[in-house]
Structures are given as structure tokens and as C-alpha cells.
Amino acid sequence: MSLTLKLLLLLLLVFSHHANSGSIVKFLPGFEGPLPFELETGYIGVGEEEELQLFYYFIKSENNPQEDPLLIWMNGGPGCSSVYGFLYEIGPLTIKIEAYDGNIPSLVPSTYSWTKMANILFLDQPVGSGFSYKRTPITDKSSDTLEVVRVHEFLRKWLDKHPEFFSNLFYVAGNSYSGKIVPALVQKISEENYRCCKPPINLQGYVLGNPVTNIVEELNNRIPYAHGMALISDELYETMKKICKGNYVFGASRNTECLKLIENFRKCTDNIHVYNILLPNCDMTSPDCLEKHFKTYKFLLLSYWANDKRVQDALQVNKGSIEEWVRCSGTILYNKNMNSSLPYHINNSNQGYRSLIYNGDHDMLVSFLSTEAWIKSLNYSIIDDWRPWLIKNQIAGYTRTYANKMTFVTVKEVDTRQSINQTRALSCSNGGLMASLCNRDSWPI
């Protein structure tokens, strides 16, 4: 064997080992001093030759890592990086909103981190999201059903490398488009626990925010949602119901009168921000838009932070593995082949798994009405009827619990994709997934 070939093989072995090992991160650029929690980052290879390298951030619970639940979190898209969930949704740090001066954006502690009561594994999936990448140039088209298989493989391999967490109570969580992946992954884990894989994953249930479940029904529910939020008139709504017969997506293509009404609806709502009707509807990357609302400015700050070489070095990102970090990739080849995740919810309920489903009440894309509709279609009896839940004696939303161990929650005045940092409290509500771990004095629900 030639010296050149030996060197190439050695480099391949070193690269493969690095790609599949986790590293403890004690400092992050932008945060002063050592991190006040334990962070591990790394890659897990999936596929026949582990050609797909999935990047993760793992944060140990700040309470009791040995006994607290283990939770995997996936952002939606498909193609949005989970670092957004880490820094803007449920993690222990967030980026400080301040004018960018060319330096690394500052990181500050987050008040409502879920890591105060759980170990959290943030995953960049599918490949092409965040820092996850392919080791070979082959064209790879993922799909809803294929992602379920890949994330399950990731979980088994990650737990094999961290066997001390096999006994922890385990939950699957995510938001937006993850509403397709999470319920199917819960079913997959449950099936494989009995079929082949030992030790079993200690699966208990799942958590979903503004979950995409059936896109057609979610589009149809925009109309009653818009009426309820006073975006369209009573007269237009009643006429649309009569003419379109509740089918505003496919009905319009077969009914010219319905099509005209849909156009009137669009004239009233086209300039509404569908993710949060309170926000200005503008290009989030434009300076003009950023000046109008500070919430959109955080996307730019996150991009500056994640693309900084010092940050990527600290996170142990493989050099040359991606060209540019983007919050949500629009170039991933992906087949949305799951029409509805409702059958998986039904099966998971029948298997006795608990679930917490929540919606920001100002989201028109996946509105609380559409989520409430499919939950009601399950025909489970109500065991804890509609009531407010509170933070510091203020109403933060409303909740209802069903006999299938499913809790439905609304979060007041937010879209959970953009402002989710209050929702640690959701798990503390009566019947919540991890209620026994909550401090009732701090979370008076």
C-alpha cells in the first residue's frame, strides 16, 4: 500500500471518528465566562454508510440530569435549524436584542428554559438543516416517512453512546412542520421497542407547538380564524360558508362564485403576517422591515452569530462541511409524502402515550382552530374542561385535557414559532407531562 493511500485512510479514520463523537463545550462566543450548564455538540452518522451526518446540541438538565426526563427537540420547515429552538424558544440562553455593531451578538440567560427540568437534545434535521451535512455528493431526497426512520436511527445511536440516559423518561418534541414527524416518530419508537431494539427507549409521550397535521384542513381553517379575529366581515364569512361549503382550498377550483369570494378574502388578509397577525408583514431580511419590529431583527442576529468562525469552532463544526449556515433552508430536496399525521395521534393515544399540544393564538397559518378541530375529531371525553392557565397571576392562555392523556393549550398573544419562551410553564399545568418536576411557587398554574 502506497504512503499516500495510507495517509488518506488515516485521515478518513480520524474524520469519521470526529464526525461521530460528541465534544463538551465550556465557552460560547458572545457569552461572558463559562457556560452555567453542560453543553455537548457533535455528529451522529445515519444511513447505510453513515453518509448523512446529523448535528446535535445536547444540554443536561440544570436540576437533576440522572432523573429528569430526556427530550429531543426538532424545529419545523422542513429544514429549520434547531439552534433556533436552543436560542429563541426553549433553551437556557438567548441572543440579546441590540443594534449590531460588527461584533459577535451577545448571549444572555433565558428565564424560562426547559432545561431547568429536562435534558434536551436539539437536532438539526433533515440533512441540509443547520450544521447537518452529507459526506458524499450523492443526490439524496428525504421525505416525511424517511425522516422518521433516520431520526429513530439517530436516537438509537446517540443513546448507545450515552447509555446512562436509557432509563430516563423520554419525550419527543417539536413545532410547526414537526407536527408531521413527531407523532410518526413516537409510533416508530414504540414499535421498535417491542420489535428489535434493546434496551428500549423509555418513551412516555410527546409535545407539539402549532403542529402541521393536515395542510388542507389548516388552510381551510384560515377563514373561520380570520372571521373570529375580525379580519373579515360577518357578511363575507357567512357567504363563503354557504357558497364554498367549508371547502375553501379545493372548492374554489370548481366553483367560480367561491373563487371570487376567495379573492375578496385575500384582499383583506394578504398583508397580514400569517405566523403572527400582530407583526408587520414584510421581508424579514430587509433593513426597513427590521426597523418596524424588533422580533424580526433577531433572525439577522442569529445568522451573524451562527456564521461566525469563532462560534463554529467552539461548537466543533466540521470545517468545510457547509458553505453558509441559514436558519431555514429552502434548497433541501424533500418529499412531503404524509398527507396527515392524525392516524399516528390516534395510534399513540391508543397506546397510552401522553401528549401536550399547544398553539399561539395569533398564528393564522396553523391556527388553534385547526388544531382544536382534529383533537375534537378523536372523540375523547373531556376530563378537565376549558380554563385559564396563569403566569404570575396573569392569564397566559387556556387549556383543556382529554381522557386520552392529551392536553390542549393556547398561548395568549403569540405565535409559538417566534415567542415560545413562556411555554416551560405549559408542562407544569395540571395533568402536564412533567408536572411533578415543576415549582408551584414559581409557576402558579
From TrEMBL:
Family: Belongs to the peptidase S10 family.
Biological processes, Gene Ontology terms: proteolysis; secondary metabolic process
GO MF annotation terms: serine-type carboxypeptidase activity; sinapoyltransferase activity
InterPro entries: AB_hydrolase_fold, Peptidase_S10
Signal peptide: 1-21
Organism field: Arabis alpina (Alpine rock-cress)
Protein's recorded name: Uncharacterized protein
UniProt keyword terms in alphabetical order: Disulfide bond, Glycoprotein, Signal
